[in-house]
Write a structure and sequence with these properties.
- With 317 residues, the protein is of the alpha+beta class.
- The chain has 3 domains: 82 residues, Rossmann fold; 133 residues, D-amino Acid Aminotransferase, Chain A, domain 1 (2-Layer Sandwich), CATH 3.30.470.20; 62 residues, Dna Ligase, domain 1, CATH 3.30.1490.
- The strands form 3 sheets. It has a 5-stranded antiparallel beta sheet with strand order 10-9-8-11-12.
Length: 317
């Protein structure tokens, strides 16, 4: 741990679709930093963020932003230019990991199994399905299941999808189409430490209805978290190993969270990595603090470990 109290700027909020979640994460982090004895400056990010950071002159920035521009490399590049140390992944890693297509190009050649997919124009969806149903449509550069739609034979989007049907095709010009993987929703947190990156646990996510979308993630009572997940030992080991491999291959720092689908009918060959989150949430419902707690790591200790990682790696990639 850091030997002396620090001045920590907690960067939160911003203008992404995940603003409210980021504010909740940031408030929790700021409280933990104060409990740890650090001096805290809370910054709700606006267009004047560079001036506010320069005025604060913190020892380290705790990046609690979610979505763009806090998770896509933009803020990371700004902090690098300012010579400020910050938590979580650097500029290049963030830019790659938030882009689901670039992530596939990085990880699939390394043997990490991910669903096959292709970019489609939203307008083309009103003419024909890009894949056999069921399939998934999602934005290329959003997190937390923002704008995800599962298209099935029984979905009320129409066949083909009607132009007036509510869905991500109304908000994004292009979408990533992937085959739907039947089975269970799993997630694995990876945390950097003195002995390298370590996978904490596998959690199964059981939404009360539908799938694990943005509302299910951040509304209390809508999703049951089973931690640790009840899985065959080989499946659990494979998910843990795949998360650590993805974390390392992308160059993640601090903490990451890898989301998976597992089709039990396929056994260990049925584990598919969906995405790697470089700015995982730190709210009371978030999965990284939950898995850390399961491993005996308190919220405050988790926050300090992320700060220590930032201090150890500096501001450069």
């Amino acid at each position: 741990m850091s030997a002396k109290p620090l001045h920590v700027a907690v960067l939160m909020g911003g203008w992404s679709a995940e603003r409210e979640v980021s504010l909740t994460s940031g408030k929790g982090i700021a409280a933990a930093c104060r409990t740890l004895g650090h001096r805290v400056t809370e910054i709700d990010m606006g267009r004047d963020v560079a001036a506010r950071l320069a005025e604060a002159a913190p020892d380290v920035v705790f990046n609690a932003l979610h979505g763009t521009p806090g998770e896509d490399g933009s803020v990371q590049g700004l902090l690098d230019l300012m010579g400020l140390r910050y938590t979580h992944s650097g500029c290049a890693t963030s830019a790659i990991a938030i882009d689901k297509v670039l992530t596939k190009r990085m990880l699939v050649p390394l043997g990490i199994r991910m669903p096959a997919g292709r970019i489609v124009s939203s307008a083309s969806l009103h003419e024909a399905d890009p894949l056999p149903r069921p399939y998934v449509l999602k934005p290329v550069n959003e997190g937390s299941s923002v704008g995800v739609a599962i298209v099935t034979d029984s979905s009320n989007y129409g066949n083909p999808i009607a132009a007036d049907a509510t869905g991500p095709w109304q908000d994004f010009a292009e979408l990533l189409a992937e085959p739907f993987i039947a089975g269970k929703e799993l997630t694995v947190a990876v945390l950097d430490g003195p002995n390298g990156a370590e996978a904490l646990a596998v959690t199964e996510l059981k939404p009360a209805q539908g799938f694990y979308d943005y509302e299910a993630k951040y509304t209390d009572g809508l999703t049951v978290h089973v931690c640790p997940a009840e899985l065959p030992a080989g499946v659990e080991a494979a998910a843990l190993a795949m998360a650590v491999q993805a974390h390392a291959a992308l160059g993640c720092k601090g903490a990451s969270r890898s989301d998976f689908r597992w089709d039990p009918a396929q056994g260990e060959a049925g584990i598919y990595l969906l995405e790697v989150n470089t700015q995982p949430g730190m709210t009371p419902l978030s999965l990284v603090p939950e898995q850390a707690k399961y491993r005996g790591i308190s919220y405050e200790t988790l926050v300090q470990r992320l700060i220590d990682s930032a201090l150890a790696t500096g501001s450069a990639e």
